[in-house]
Design a protein that fits this description.
By secondary structure, this protein is mostly beta strands. The protein contains no helices and 3 strands. Strands 1-2-3 form a 3-stranded antiparallel β-sheet, with no helix packed on it. β1 and β2 form a beta hairpin.
Length: about 70
């Protein structure tokens, strides 16, 4: 879909928020809008986390909310 460069710092904690409404996706890291895209191929399905380079992560406190329309 889309990628964005982000300067991660070792030992820092980052909070990611992905908003998906119809064909629009917005990714926030620590409250900052990092990327946006529109994609019609993914009307439903699963999400995942990945790393394109060597790295280590710990994913915790994942919340998925499905509800009516909400403003971004």
């Amino acid at each position: 879909m889309i990628t964005a460069r982000y300067d991660w710092e070792l030992g820092e904690e980052y909070r990611l928020k992905l908003v998906s409404e119809k064909d629009r996706f917005i990714l926030y890291i620590n409250g900052d809008n990092v990327l946006e895209c529109k994609e019609t191929a993914y009307a439903h399905g699963m999400f995942g986390f990945g790393c394109l380079e060597d790295g280590e992560n710990e994913i915790k406190d994942v919340h998925v909310r499905t509800s009516g329309q909400k403003s971004v």
